[in-house]
Amino acid sequence: MCGIIGYIGEKHPKEILLNGLKNLEYRGYDSAGMAFKNEKEIQIIKSVGKISNLEEKLKKQSIIDCHLGIAHTRWATHGEPTEENAHPHKVGKITLVHNGIIENAATLKEQLQKEGVVFNSSTDTEVAAALINKYYKKSMIKAIEEAIHDIKGSYAFGIICDDDPNTLYATRCESPLILGIGKKENFITSDIGAILDYTKKYVLLGENEIVTLTKDSYSITKNGKEVNRKVLTSDLSSEDTSLRGYEHFMMKEIMEEPILVDNIIQKYKNHLENLPDLKKYKHIHIVGCGSAYYAGMIGKNLFEEDGIKVEIDVASEYRYRNIIYDKDTLVILISQSGETADTIAAMRKAIEHKVDTLAIVNVDASTIARECTYKVLIEAGREVAVATTKAFILQVLILSLLSYKINPDKEYLKDLEKLPQQLKVLLDKSGFYKKLADAIYKHEDVFFIGRRIDYAISMEGSLKLKEVSYIHSDAYQAGELKHGTISLIKNGTIVFGIVTDEETKDKTISNLEEVISRGAYPIYVGTENCHYEHKILVPKVHKKLQPILVVPTLQMIAYYVAYKRGCDIDKPKNLAKSVTVE
Ligand code: G6P
User: Fold this and answer.
1) What is the CATH T-level fold of the domain 430-574, as seen in this structure?
2) 577 is catalytic
3) Alpha-carbon distance 508 to 515, whole Å?
4) Structure confidence by residue, pLDDT tens digits, 344-386
């Protein structure tokens, strides 16, 4: 979703902001813009579509000499993705970029219009600029304080004032924003990946704290009082954001799975004490969005087999559902980014009800990692492709280890040791997946069926395929298909049968036969050889580990199908990496 980078220092900001925006590209956006400021003037340049369009514009214009700038990638919420609506927005003396949603924008706008403000866009962001401008007399900090007092909703702002070419201001609430500390230069950004080429030192900003940055100093205040915050060092490297010879991040990230899985195994296999003990809870709620939710579905299957009652919800439902909390409940929040708005809201609901919360997240500095009672980091490194791959596999691995801790058995440990190598062997068969993709890529409807844990795998396999290849795809509980959806099966419809669950595999095969007799073209995904022409065979391992070998093969299929269809694999249309609005 939207991304922010701001710079103040000794260099010209153009290249730094451009590089920052490119590093934010993976989050998904539909327009981009920049503002440059010197003693005399402010220059704003925006464009619709890819950052390369903005880059072209920047080449064609003469850019003012300056040392201060802000830049933004916008994912449209209020108003179409047009140049007028792209950020930065300028009203009076205030120019700003914004992530988040101002919920009372309409009311504020009406009021400001009555006071004579003329708006040029349909964004909520312009309303914020107008509000700060209204309150700006002498002090920017006071103006920002007054404005955010009026604003309801989520925001991260990077702000420049016409009167001051040497200061960058920022504030945030519910939307992430950090401060990057360099040598004779400082930054603001919504995502540390945007500034890793320049500094690894950063400061987290608390809610409604206002930061004032010059090239060699920064100060943070809240309600007029100074706030001291620790300078942290990121262990991510800018290497994480490079393709390292791969054509797409999605493939690079799938290929990282064996080593990352191995790292987690080595970390925990003899140190289960470093994982929370779930045995003490009578009831577990699992909450997440998208793939994180499907990882949770796998977790539900595992924990239920361990004898714990589990409820699972997508976060956007959980936050509004009337949940009956038992006293011994643990709420597990699964999120790669740790910043998904709905998952944050679900977490806060659980915290309000005074139950324990466990974050399974990738980003350590994220809101969810910080606010939960316990956290386990999946240590995936930076995931750039919008469609998650490695983070999903590591989420499942952590859930599997938590389940093993509840219910240890020797077979599991034996299989755990072999897992990274087996995964590597499976991923090395790219020719095989390419060939299978040849049989799929021209189709417009694909179904995935499975039961129990195989149904959860089906959901993720189906999501991966549709998000990157734009083929319509659905996943069904194998036994449910005949209650309606089977009417969609026609000659040649592709149906993936996920058949790894020992107790239900015969039943799923019968369901596969039912669709075959109605013309479907089956692709069998299982652990035992079979007579089907198209099959993906994976080694049989402990059932708590099986999805870790199956899902990557479906990720490979999704990748090659999307490749054959010429899709923008790393940045599928309409999608965002981290959905920071409701
Ligand atoms: C977006 C992404 C998905 C991701 C979901 C949850 O929709 O496109 O790939 O699964 O958000 O994100 P999170 O960061 O909370 O795991």
Assistant:
1) Rossmann fold (3.40.50)
2) yes
3) 11
4) 999 999 999 999 999 999 998 899 999 999 999 999 998 999 9
